[in-house]
């Protein structure tokens, strides 16, 4: 693949996680406005995040199976269309039902979540299919950076749209879906692979065998991804309330403030993807360091209440997330064969969505017990996960299955035998007979 082709392919694939992450992050700045407009409790408004993420987490394994069976693009394109359609349902409900729109908006969010199941995790699997070797780590770092960039842009974008009306964000989704669908369908060429026409039961059995061999590494990696995003979205949910109630910061200024920790995460994700390449041991320890950095920065906020320290700590937590996620992405995609990669990465994407779903309501509950309890609880989760990663993620488990016959010398073909006997000589890899 030429360099300009690689750029176009990565741009199209990066658009998938970029718009997927808008589904939650763009709403966070306008949650207080939605709460006031629909007269909701803090818990009920948090369900707009949760009921997007839980359906996505549930449906993702099915999307992964379908992508392994029928092809990645055939799942990504319809999923993106369904994602945009959910935004249309939520936006029109807000226009026509006014104050009674909450149940219909939740229905639109559930529809969006089902569509989101076939987006970023499948794009990650497709990236793993297209790029190999050292290019894979870089490509997956760019994909994670695009995810982070979406989180950076979305609070500001959500705040700007909120200046129009509180439901404008819902109607924005279909507008950004169309160019991404076209880019993936026409610019990305999916590699041909042998897709076995096996029953779901047989397929799940083969996946079970992968987990039997690498269960400790895979499950720890899943926990790391879920914990990192639970903490990130919990902090953003808290920050949205805190900026408005304590600092009287709202509108675009609040969106820019929310973007600070995510900006650090985005830049770190990109740099991490550039650095890791195929350095398996480095990936493991960057995961450990990233989670430990999150734990330490959040624990400090339980002891000190200072505005400057607060933003420094959440920024360091963003750096820790940016160190952790690209490495986990590469570990997950590299540890399995291409024929099973769709479901394994989708299971990983599913637990990441569950982390996003649990973050806002969990932090909402912990906020009622005081800020130190909230921050120490989050730090404890990150710290325990870092310890598990240090012990259970092993370098030998990160390597993908070897192709059949790897490590054996192939039997010489007839032309090769002739070459060895002097009847032919190799020139630029071709056997040319002597005249």
Automatic annotation (TrEMBL):
Similarity comment: Belongs to the major facilitator superfamily. TCR/Tet family.
Biased composition (Low complexity): 401-410
Annotated protein name in UniProt: MFS transporter
Renumbered residue ranges of the record's region Disordered: 401-422
Membrane-spanning segments: 7-31, 43-63, 75-97, 164-188, 216-239, 251-273, 285-304, 310-331, 343-367, 373-393
Domain Major facilitator superfamily (MFS) profile: 9-397
Organism encoding this protein: Desulfofundulus thermobenzoicus
Compartments in which it is found: Cell membrane
Domain of life: Bacteria
Record's GO cellular component terms: plasma membrane
Assigned keywords, A-Z: Cell membrane, Membrane, Transmembrane, Transmembrane helix, Transport
Membrane association type: Multi-pass membrane protein
GO molecular function, one term: transmembrane transporter activity
């Amino acid at each position: 693949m030429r360099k300009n082709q690689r750029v176009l392919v990565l741009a199209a694939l990066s658009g998938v996680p970029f718009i997927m992450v808008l589904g939650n992050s763009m709403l966070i700045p306008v949650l207080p406005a939605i709460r006031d407009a629909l007269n909701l409790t803090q818990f009920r408004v948090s369900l707009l995040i949760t009921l997007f993420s839980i359906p996505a987490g549930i449906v993702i394994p099915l999307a992964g199976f379908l992508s392994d069976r029928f092809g990645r693009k055939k799942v990504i394109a319809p999923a993106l269309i369904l994602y945009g359609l959910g935004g249309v349902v939520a936006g029109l409900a807000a226009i026509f039902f006014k104050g009674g729109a909450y149940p219909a908006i939740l229905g639109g969010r559930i529809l969006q979540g089902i569509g989101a199941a076939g987006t970023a995790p499948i794009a990650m699997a497709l990236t793993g299919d297209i790029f190999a070797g050292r290019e894979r780590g870089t490509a997956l770092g760019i994909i994670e950076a695009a995810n982070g960039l979406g989180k950076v842009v979305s609070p500001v974008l959500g705040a700007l749209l909120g200046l129009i009306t509180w439901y404008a964000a819902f109607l924005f989704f279909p507008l950004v879906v169309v160019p991404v669908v076209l880019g993936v369908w026409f610019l990305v060429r999916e590699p041909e692979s042998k897709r076995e026409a096996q029953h779901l039961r047989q397929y799940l059995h083969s996946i079970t065998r992968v987990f039997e061999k690498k269960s400790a590494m895979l499950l720890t990696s899943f926990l790391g991804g879920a914990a990192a995003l639970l903490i990130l979205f919990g902090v953003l949910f808290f920050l949205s309330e805190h900026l408005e109630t304590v600092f009287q910061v709202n509108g675009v200024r609040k969106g820019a403030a929310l973007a600070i920790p995510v900006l650090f995460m985005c830049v770190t994700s990109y740099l991490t993807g550039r650095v890791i390449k195929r350095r398996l041991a480095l990936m493991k320890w960057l995961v450990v360091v990233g989670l430990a950095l999150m734990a330490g920065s959040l624990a400090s906020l339980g002891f000190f209440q200072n505005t400057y320290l607060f933003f420094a700590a959440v920024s360091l937590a963003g750096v820790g997330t940016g160190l952790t996620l690209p490495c986990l992405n590469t570990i997950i995609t590299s540890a399995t064969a291409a024929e099973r990669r769709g479901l394994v990465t989708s299971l990983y994407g599913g637990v990441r969505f569950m982390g996003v779903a649990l973050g806002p309501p969990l932090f909402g509950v912990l906020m009622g017990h005081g800020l130190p309890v909230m921050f120490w609880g989050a730090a404890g989760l990150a710290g325990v996960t870092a310890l598990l990663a240090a012990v259970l993620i092993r370098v030998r488990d990160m390597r993908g299955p070897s192709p059949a016959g790897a490590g054996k010398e192939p039997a010489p073909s007839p032309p090769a035998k002739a070459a060895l006997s002097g009847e032919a000589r190799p020139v630029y890899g071709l056997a040319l007979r002597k005249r």
